[in-house]
Amino acid sequence: MPECDFVLPHSRGSSHGHTRIIRKAYEQDYYTRMMSECYQLWAQLEKEANVQIYRNTGMLIVGKEDCSAFRSLRGTLLRNNVPMEVLSPEQFASRFPSVRLPPGESAVIDKTAGVLHADRALKAVQDLFRGLGGVIHDGEKVVDFTPGSPITMTTNSGMYRAQSLVITAGPWAKSVLARTGLQLPLQVLRINVCYWKERIPGTYGIGRHFPCFIGVKQHGAKHEIYGLPSNEYPGLMKICYHSGSETEPDERDRQTSQEDIAILSSFVSKSFPGLDPTPAVVEQCMYTVTPDSDFILDQHPSHSNIIIGAGFSGHGFKLAPVVGKILCELALGKTPSFDLSPFRITRFQSLLKSAL
């Protein structure tokens, strides 16, 4: 059961758009280990679909030495032997003259990181799925489903029965699962996806080998600020705040807060002098966030044949190949390829609201 009842491709979930960052730099080792297989699976998809999905750019990570998140990002790269580079302030200034490194901050590069072409990836997966005999029922709204063996699901177009059901309903996961009496602690955020005009086109361009970047709580920001080199819109660089305003998925467009854009404008003016500090284009997407920002990959606590993938917290796309593999393993009753203890529903025991 995918994200709601829109015709593919649509812009109402968390998977649309042209690009995403792919990286091995994470605060937690378990994501870094999962990413190793993700790179292999993305390469396999590229080969089978005969389309380029991944482009290596490297990723610049900037933060203060006394910031635990920055130290954790660097630490996972070191512990997992990920190709990386540590830059001195002098090396930074020489390599990236169009970026200002604040005094007292450090920088490292995840050399494996780069850009995923998200729209190409989705089309490639859908085309291969159809080519293998799969059927995608987009534009079909789920009206109800009844747990059991088999599970019965009713849509506005018909009725389906299956021995297992995988629910990946994105921002609608909380309301969908509430029908089973399970109230997960999920929060939906409206994210402003901002593009900033280069004063001199190409300054931060992918053609000039400018990397992706993550600014770890820079200039007093409470959350990460991330960016990708100008590519998808010529002369525009994508820079976003890794948080947003709480919303309801069916009322996303009613939320008009610009607090994150103000934070970004201040950041751009201080760190990227080659950009106009007013966004040229602003688009929207949604994050579905858990209290700890880790995913939910688990069986329903009362119905073991209902499998849940939810709460990807704005960093799930790059991990989609392994997440799909894990959900498939759970649905088939196989032992998962990875330790799922960080992703189990039981970690929220004190927060769960259940009518079971």
Describe what you observe in this structure.
It contains 7 helices and 20 strands. With 356 residues, it is α+β, with helices and mostly antiparallel strands. Strands 3, 4, 5, 12, 13, 14, 15, 16 and 17 form a 9-stranded mixed β-sheet that branches. It has a 3-stranded antiparallel β-sheet with strand order 1-6-2. The longest helix is centred in the first third of the chain and has 21 residues, at 29-49. The relative contact order is 0.17.
Q: SSE layout and pairings?
A:
Elements: E1 19-22, H1 29-49, E2 54-56, E3 59-64, H2 68-79, E4 84-87, H3 89-95, E5 105-110, E6 114-117, H4 118-131, E7 142-146, E8 151-155, E9 159-162, E10 165-167, H5 173-178, E11 182-183, E12 187-197, E13 212-215, E14 225-228, E15 236-241, E16 245-246, H6 259-271, E17 281-289, E18 296-299, E19 306-310, H7 320-331, E20 353-354
Parallel strand pairs: 3-13, 10-19
Antiparallel strand pairs: 1-6, 2-6, 3-5, 4-5, 7-8, 8-9, 11-20, 12-15, 12-16, 12-17, 13-14, 14-15, 18-19
Helix pairs in contact: 1-4
| Shape field | globular
Low-confidence stretches: none
Q: What is the straight-line distance between the termini?
A: 22 Å
User: Which structural class should the secondary elements be placed in?
Assistant: alpha+beta
Radius of gyration (Å): 21 Å
Q: Strand percentage, roughly? A: 25-35%
Helix segment tally: 7
Summarize the helix and strand pattern as letters.
EHEEHEHEEHEEEEHEEEEEEHEEEHE
* Major pleated sheet: 9 strands, mixed
DSSP helix fraction? 10-25%
Number of strands: 20
Mean pLDDT over all positions: 92
